[in-house]
Known about the structure:
mainly alpha, globular
Amino acid sequence: MIIKRKIAVAIALNSVIVIVTTAVILSFFLGNKDAFIRSGPQSFRFFTTDSNVLSMIGSMIMIPFEVRALRGKAEKLPRFAIVIKYVCTASVTLTFFTVMLFLGPTFGYPLFLNDTGIFTHLISPMLAFYTFTLLETNCEISFKNVLWALVPTLIYGTVYLTQVLVVGEKNGGWEDFYFFNTGGYWYMSSTVMFIASILINLLLKSLHNNTYKKYKLPEKSSPTVFEW
């Protein structure tokens, strides 16, 4: 069941995510530098950038369907779009918790929350979290979807470890800028991040589904489309 007030807020917040993320990425290609990023292409080495771009894509997919629903041309948001938004939100939420619970306490929050970092590490992740768990909730998220949401983290983790451990900085690979191989304990860091990803995905699933059940109303029977 569509609640138009919630959909209108979702459209506004998703639009903010798209505009802010686009502006941040463009700034890296126009000479903006922060504590880590020195150029536009280099910015995509960081999970922060990649997860925020994913979040932006999720918002861009949702907006047309939400506009259609707000105009009364659809009774619900398509499930496939909500699942994609879930996968994208899970990634950017992992960025948020990594900064808040590990990098921030270890190296100082100002390093990660100044300049564009305030958007990519805090504001945009919180907006994605809010829209997905409280506004875009006309279907349930299944455990199978939890596994889908692990895919971006697993792909990035594989690339990161390959660049840091296999290729190595001396051979053109990446430096260990996330310090996950400090002391040679990359396997412990990888395990912790994998477990953290699962817990975050389950948290998002639980909050989203709780909101769905709270506002669920009897619906007309209709064929299932895009069942993920």
